[in-house]
Design brief:
This protein has 379 residues and is an alpha/beta fold. It is built from eleven helices and ten strands. Strand 9, helix 9 and strand 10 form a beta-alpha-beta unit. Helix 1 packs across helix 2 and helix 3 runs antiparallel to helix 7. The longest helix is centred in the middle third of the chain and has 15 residues.
Length: 379
């Protein structure tokens, strides 16, 4: 009897959502052309988004996702949504962001890969933008979100909430459009990307660009297994180490081998298997071009650019603001949130999230986040 062999599934050239894929709970708004900060024009701009609750004209809450997040803030995984909602514990009827009270709106970011125009999207010639996708900034992302809000007839937000890259966008919302933001929550994010953060991003970008499957950014229509999935997986492994902590790793994994494997005979340690797992998941649901584009935009984030000092820039914020950070965050350390809280008028002291989960505390620590959100909405 012949033993059955499992044939490995080759990863797609891109994990992006593309036309013809299941839509799931996404909706779309077409915004026409937009001219970017760099002077280039994107024609036929589309934004994918999801909503929960009912809009009464004054109760809209904007939730902004992080680098590899998307508009699927809450809900199950399923057709069109490869992963469950990333804030399901916080968004829904009776939860901290109560959809019986608030109209919650979550767009996929400009340059993303889950329905909003990005490198994997079709250009006017019908081919993926790929290397032709123009460089964008966090301010471009927010300018697009402002046009998107106009299209939904949302003149102002009762609250704008964001963590990590989403916090960068939330901050720019409050500086660029202060009259449109009533409340502001900044989680685990900085006023500007530091040299250390740019340094951590550099090997991630290099891993993708030096992958033979990158093809200069023009790989989207290649067969399975011929995209830059190896480089994207390496980038994810590096990034994940900045999201978590040595304390968590030592507690969960120590030096244990992966079950059934021997590190002394070509096998893996359990921590290596864990990182491999996260890399494998990402290459099936994300696009390497978007990873590069969004990382570059994050590297360029500086709220004071062209606005004088950080104090002058942050002094524009009129929203009732809560700033929170994880005490164990080694990607965006707590002192960066302390700077925001000190310079944003009326923000008060930083809300500390005591957690062993580092940067990812803003996704994991639901009980503490509920307390923080309750304070924001009660003020």
């Amino acid at each position: 009897m012949t033993e059955l062999q499992t044939v490995p599934v080759l990863p797609p050239a891109t994990g992006a959502w593309r036309e013809g894929d299941p839509v799931g709970d996404r909706r779309f708004v077409d915004l026409g052309a937009i001219t970017l900060e760099g002077g280039e024009t994107l024609p036929d701009l589309r934004v994918a988004y999801e909503t929960w609750g009912r809009f009464d004209g004054t109760n809209a809450v904007l939730v902004l996702h992080a680098l590899t997040g998307d508009s699927h803030v809450t809900g199950e995984a399923g057709l069109g949504h490869p992963t469950p909602g990333w804030w399901t514990a916080l968004v829904g009827p009776g939860k901290a962001i109560d959809t019986d009270r608030w109209f919650v709106v979550a767009p996929n970011v400009l340059g993303g890969c889950q329905g909003t125009t990005g490198p994997a999207s079709p250009a006017p010639d019908g081919q993926a933008y790929g290397s032709r996708f123009p460089r964008t900034t966090v301010r471009d992302q927010v300018a697009v979100e402002a046009l998107f809000a106009d299209a939904l007839s949302i003149g102002s937000w009762a609250a704008v909430l964001g963590g990590s890259m989403g916090g960068m966008r939330a901050l720019e919302w409050a500086v660029m459009y202060p009259a449109r933001v009533e409340r502001l929550l900044l989680l685990c994010s900085p006023a500007a990307a530091s040299a250390d953060q740019i340094a951590w991003a550099a090997p991630q970008l290099a891993a993708i660009r030096e992958d033979p499957g990158w093809h200069g950014g023009d790989y989207h229509d290649r067969p399975r297994g011929e995209g830059p999935h190896v480089g994207l997986g390496v980038a994810r492994r590096i990034a994940h180490n900045t999201y978590r902590t040595a304390e968590e790793y030592d507690t969960r994994f120590a030096r244990r081998p992966q079950p059934g494997e021997d590190p002394e005979d070509g096998g893996r340690f359990a921590i290596e298997s864990y990182l491999d797992h996260h890399a494998e998941k990402l290459v099936h649901r994300f696009d390497a071009g978007s990873y590069v584009e969004l990382t570059r935009a994050m590297n360029g984030h500086d709220v004071a650019r062209g606005r004088g000092s950080p104090a002058e820039a942050l002094g524009r914020v009129t929203a009732r603001t809560v700033v929170a950070g994880s005490v164990s965050d080694r990607l965006y350390p707590l002192h960066q949130q302390e700077e925001l809280a000190a310079l944003i008028p009326g923000a008060g002291e930083v809300h500390r999230i005591e957690s062993p989960f580092g940067h990812d505390a803003f996704l994991i620590e639901a009980r503490r986040l509920t307390q923080i959100l309750e304070e924001l909405f009660a003020r």
